[in-house]
Structures are given as C-alpha cells and as structure tokens.
C-alpha cells in the first residue's frame, strides 16, 4: 500500500507523461478505424443496432428503417420483450424491401476474408 502511494507521488511530481510516437500512432489508427455496415457494406465510423434484427448498421440504413411502415411494430415488439426480461431479442425480422440488393443483409463482413 505504501509503495503504491509513493509511486503515485513520483508520477504526480513528474507531471504529465508524453506517449512515444508509436503509441500515439496506434491511438490514431484506432480512432479512425472504419466499420462495414452489415446491411449495405458501406464503410462507416458510426453504427447502431437494427430494430428489425441483430445487425449492426450505419446511420443511412437506420434512417431507412425509421421511415419503414413496420418500424413502430418492431419497436413495440422489442420494448415488450425487454419488459419480459428478454434482453437478447432477435427482432421481428428484416422486411424484404430493406434488404440490400447485393445481398449484404447476411453474415458479418468483418469476419469474411477478401
């Protein structure tokens, strides 16, 4: 315990530490990593879970979901499942008109080899 307090005091006296260049490069790469949308396969930095199924989708795909006529039905089904204690609700299923034309609606593109 005393050794930990002394080590903390030494760090405090030295002031802020600078990271080596290699560490900052690794942090920059991590911050700028792109994600491939599981539905449209487009690169995106921001993503969220689909209300219809368990895909991770980009913002344009979410906006298309919210405009879909069955969106309220899917949201109510998910809310009811959460109230029942079912926190891994698979969704009501992706409507055919929201599936990407190239078949990007199946699988996890991050795990596929190119």
Key features of this structure:
mainly alpha; 114 residues; 4 helices; disordered C terminus; two-stranded antiparallel ribbon
What does this structure look like?
The chain is mostly helical and 114 residues long. It has a two-stranded antiparallel sheet. Strands 3-4 form a two-stranded antiparallel sheet. It is elongated, with a radius of gyration of 22 Å. The chain starts with a helix and ends in a 31-residue tail after the last helix. It has helices spanning 2-14, 21-31, 59-66, 71-83, and strands at residues 35-36, 43-44, 47-49, 56-58. The longest helix is centred in the N-terminal third of the chain and has 13 residues, at 2-14. The protein has one domain (20-99).
Task: Please render the helix and strand layout as text.
Blueprint: H1 2-14, H2 21-31, E1 35-36, E2 43-44, E3 47-49, E4 56-58, H3 59-66, H4 71-83
Antiparallel strand pairs: 1-2, 3-4
Integer tally of domains: 1
Major β-sheet annotation: 2 strands, antiparallel
Report mean pLDDT, rounded to a whole number: 76
Question: Residue ranges: pLDDT <50 for 5 or more in a row?
Answer: 105-114
Classify the secondary structure makeup into a structural class. mainly alpha
Short description:
The chain is mainly alpha-helical. It is built from four helices and four strands; from the N terminus they run ααββββαα.
């Amino acid at each position: 315990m005393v050794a930990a307090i002394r080590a903390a005091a030494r760090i405090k006296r030295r002031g802020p530490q600078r990271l080596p260049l290699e560490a900052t490069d690794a942090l920059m790469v991590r911050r700028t990593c792109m994600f491939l949308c599981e539905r449209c396969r487009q690169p995106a930095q921001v993503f969220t879970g689909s209300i219809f199924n368990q895909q991770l989708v980009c913002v344009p795909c979410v906006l298309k979901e919210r405009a879909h006529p069955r969106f309220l039905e899917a949201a109510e089904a998910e809310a009811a499942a959460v109230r029942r204690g079912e926190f891994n609700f698979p969704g009501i299923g992706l409507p055919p008109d929201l599936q990407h034309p190239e078949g990007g609606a199946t699988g996890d593109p991050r795990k596929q080899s190119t």
